[in-house]
Structure formats: structure tokens, C-alpha cells
TrEMBL record:
Cross-referenced InterPro entries: 4_helix_cytokine-like_core, IL-15/IL-21_fam
GO molecular function terms noted in the UniProt entry: cytokine activity; cytokine receptor binding
The protein's name in its UniProt record: Interleukin
Signal peptide: 1-22
Cellular component aspect of the GO annotation: extracellular space
Gene3D superfamilies: Interleukin-15/Interleukin-21 (1.20.1250.70)
GO process terms (BP): immune response; neutrophil activation; positive regulation of cytokine production; positive regulation of immune response; positive regulation of T cell proliferation
Chief localisation class: secreted
Matching SUPFAM superfamilies: 4-helical cytokines
Superkingdom of origin: Eukaryota
Family: Belongs to the IL-15/IL-21 family.
Organism: Rhodinocichla rosea
Keywords noted in UniProt: Cytokine, Disulfide bond, Secreted, Signal
Length: 137
């Protein structure tokens, strides 16, 4: 299955690179980026990181933007702390998800990132995976 993941990753990368930057993403591109992010996230699953705590949002639908922003912020923390070979994976996830952000989004009822519970990486990883899967629906 590793081969399949690699092949899909390459295909996804080609699709993503051929996407016009700056243009809004269409459904197919969004689906490909989400899928690629979920697969990349899977590659990070076994990171041995028990010393860092991550703010782990678990807000649902109406706060998607703030939830995503928080996950991206915490990935930046993770990137500083993983081996070089994993850094690229973290960067890929961030690149694939940044286009889902809406800089004009504001919802005062959504929690600030720092208001979320801090959790260890395995739980953070699980929540983020769940969140991305919910975005696929």
C-alpha cells in the first residue's frame, strides 16, 4: 500500500502544481488537496513526540475556518520539531490546506486557538484527521 500512497501523492502533487495559483479552487482541486493532506497526515502518524502539547480544536462546522487556522498554526510548531524528512510532509499539508482559509472569515462565537485544550501529538493527529475527513463530506 505504500506504493499506492506514493503514486497517489505524486499524482496529487501534479494536479496541485497544475492548478492556477491565486484562482479559487474548484471542487476537484479541493477534493485532491484534502485527500493529499489526509494521506500526508497519515505519514506523520508515528512521530515520536510526547513532549510537545498542541492546541487541539474540536469545534464543528460553523467554526471550520478558525479550526483549520488553529491546526495550521500548530503544524508550524510541529515543523520546528520533527526530523528533516518529516518537515517536507508538514509543509505539504500546510500548502494544500492554506487555500481553504478565508482571510475575511470572522465569527466571534468561535474559540481562539489558545482556548482549545492542549493534547499530545497522537490525539492532535487524530482530531486533525477527523476534521479533514469531515471537510470531505
Amino acid at each position: 500500500t505504500m506504493c499506492k500512497v506514493l503514486i497517489f501523492g505524486c499524482v496529487a502533487a501534479v494536479i496541485l502544481m497544475s492548478a492556477a495559483y491565486g484562482a479559487p479552487l474548484n471542487k476537484t482541486q479541493k477534493a485532491a488537496r484534502l485527500e493529499a493532506s489526509i494521506l500526508d497526515l497519515e505519514l506523520l502518524k508515528n512521530i515520536d513526540n510526547n513532549f510537545l502539547d498542541f492546541y487541539t480544536p474540536n469545534d464543528r462546522q460553523e467554526c471550520n475556518h478558525t479550526t483549520l487556522a488553529c491546526f495550521l498554526k500548530e503544524l508550524e510548531v510541529l515543523k520546528q520539531d520533527v526530523e528533516e524528512d518529516k518537515q517536507q510532509t508538514v509543509i505539504n499539508i500546510k500548502k494544500n490546506l492554506e487555500d481553504f482559509m478565508d482571510p475575511n472569515f470572522s465569527n466571534p462565537t468561535c474559540k481562539k486557538c489558545e482556548a482549545n485544550e492542549k493534547k499530545k501529538f497522537p490525539e492532535f493527529h487524530q482530531e486533525m484527521t477527523r476534521f479533514l475527513q469531515s471537510m470531505q463530506k
